[in-house]
Design brief:
By secondary structure, this protein is α/β, with parallel strands linked by helices. The chain has helices spanning 11-21, 47-62, 96-106, 173-179, 181-187, 190-194, and strands at residues 2-6, 26-30, 66-75, 116-126, 133-143, 159-161. The radius of gyration is 16 Å and the shape is globular. The structure holds 2'-deoxyinosine 5'-triphosphate (Y43) and magnesium ion. Mg(2+) binds at residues 41, 70.
Length: 196
Amino acid sequence: MKELIIATKNKGKIRDFEQLFSPFSIQVKSLLDIEGIEDIEETGSTFEENAAIKAEAISNKFGVTVIADDSGLVVDALNGAPGVYSARYAGEDKDDQANIEKVLSELQGTSEENRTARFVCVLAVSQPAKETFFTRGECEGTIGYQVKGEHGFGYDPIFYPLNSRRTMAEMRPEEKNQISHRKKALDQLKKWVEQL
Ligand SMILES: O=c1nc[nH]c2c1ncn2[C@H]1C[C@H](O)[C@@H](COP(=O)(O)OP(=O)(O)OP(=O)(O)O)O1
Ligand SMILES: [Mg+2]
């Protein structure tokens, strides 16, 4: 089976990608499969910049094609926060629960119609001797008032996709992967993936 390296250490993303790539018969390899990869500092101020930093660091190190995913939650009432800082919103230790609590507390007193938000996923593709390119997917929704659901990761337990009465964490992985920002970003890579 063909293999593709995704420059991530996030187990939730890895599970999403394993499922999203399985129809293409592509085996996903992550940074958890390769020993001794240090955390890559995400010094950019956009999803594109951070995705490129991650993809190029690993692609240059091994001389192979690499995809990276930089993603996050953009909340309108918080002027776009946590955005590119989603993973580190409540501190450097990247604690999903603490991040969720911080978003809910910042939104205290914000009415239902003002709780609009979207998940954004930018994929960067870095190939030897080629220029890095990007795709982007977004999933619109609203932020709830409490955590609900056991599936998924990150902010899934407080995110209601548009027209859904369930949070993303209440959906089975196959359901999430039909509507997610990650799925939409990967859809735009379909032609490229098929020629791998
Ligand atoms: O489908 C999702 N469902 C829920 N939450 C999500 C999703 N997609 C991204 N998120 C959140 C998780 C994390 O708080 C941030 C990503 O941060 P981001 O830097 O891209 O990833 P990360 O540091 O966890 O792993 P890595 O950089 O190794 O890929 O957005
Ligand atoms: Mg990160």
